[in-house]
Amino acid sequence: MVKAIRLLGLVVLILISSIFKPTTTDAFPVEITLVQSAVAKGAVCLDGSPPAYHHAPGFGAGINNWYITMEGGGWCNNVTTCLDRKNTHFYNWNKIKVRYCDGSSFTGDVEAVNPATNLHFRGQRVWLAIMEDLLAKGMKNAQNAILSGCSAGGLSSILHCDKFRALLPPTTKVKCLSDAGYFINAKDLAGTQHIETFYSQVVATHQSAKNLPQSCTSRLNPGLCFFPQNVVAQIQTPIFFVNAAYDSWQIKNILAPGVADPHGTWHDCKLDIKKCSSLQLKTMQDFRVQFLSAINGRVDSVSKGMFIDSCYAHCQTEMQETWMRADSPLLEKTTIAKAVGDWYFDRSPFKKIDCPYPCNPTCHNRIFE
Q1: In CA terms, which of 109, 155, 158, 176 is 20 to 30 Å from 298?
Q2: 193: burial class by Cβ within 10 Å (0-12, 13-18, 19+)?
Q3: What does the pLDDT look like over 119-178, one tens digit per residue?
């Protein structure tokens, strides 16, 4: 893992924080920081290398404001899939991009290391070691702080939201943002609980149960506590959800995974929603109903917000074109950036759900190769 990270050298850090001030540039290079001190604590990546993050320092009035975003990238649910991934990939605020290197949304903690595989399931330790490093670098003095993430990182921001709040002084304004992290427990085309089985395997492989919200694990099987619908209602820290009701990753991997579509009937539809048949669109509309059922009632607190559009997309806060550009997706004439900014600064709440596809002409629908 460390070799792959060093080969990257510099990354492009998206200026998500333009909710604070519009910017004319989308990205700039930020050097990587390896947390070498974490190794002695056993807080290491799958391959035993030190965790890493990118830090663009804040300046001026934003020097004590922090925006932490957790990188996404799916999960590994057993030794084989974890071996496969072992070697992979706000204006003046401090901006942090935490590299994802554990395959459990930073929830794993297994002491033993199998010498045959040298896999280290230590995601929770990695997360805590990076947070401690950031606290020592000034985050302990934060006036404002946001924990965010996209996809598996969006799930991380949900599962760690209250823990992040607990690390910071009570005077710090702390909120969380989950982008495309609201994965639902739904049956696939074949009527099986494919994603439920997969998540249960992730939790078992990484021994994540002890690091999942106790408010959930005290009443449900730990594997079910990987699903936001079972934990969100108990989150005390303000949190905002950005999600497509037709999330392209969920359509491809929860509703219509390859195992449930052996003849590839859904292949073209999953690549481009415009190629879906009327029957496939009906199935996707039913999935939207399930998604809305899984989130409605869980975001009823005044401290929670949501922007649920009807786009065929996955992760919409990491690119200017879907974040706050002139042609970005809109809900009630509001961009995602404005909705999140107004909510974070308590200017106005935002809880909006789009009408069904294809009603929203501002959508940037994903087209896959």
Answers
A1: 109
A2: middle
A3: 999 999 999 999 999 999 999 999 999 999 999 999 999 999 999 999 999 999 999 999
Residue 62 is given by DSSP the state G
Neighbours of 361 (CB within 10 A): 7
Tell me the CA distances in angstroms from 369 to 116, 143, 246, 270, 271, one per residue in order.
37, 43, 18, 10, 7
Question: Edge-to-edge, what's the strand order for the sheet holding 27-34?
Answer: 10-14, 27-34, 52-56, 94-98, 65-70, 144-150, 173-179, 239-244, 304-309, 351-353
Q: Kindly list the catalytic residues.
A: 151, 247, 314
The model's pLDDT over 14-43, given as tens digits with 9 standing for 90+, comes to: 334 344 444 444 556 889 999 999 999 999
Q: What is the pTM of this model?
A: 0.92
Nearest to 284 by CA among 357, 178, 215: 357
CA distance 14 to 321: 11
Provide the mean pLDDT of the chain. Answer: 92
| pLDDT (0 to 100) of residue 19 | 40
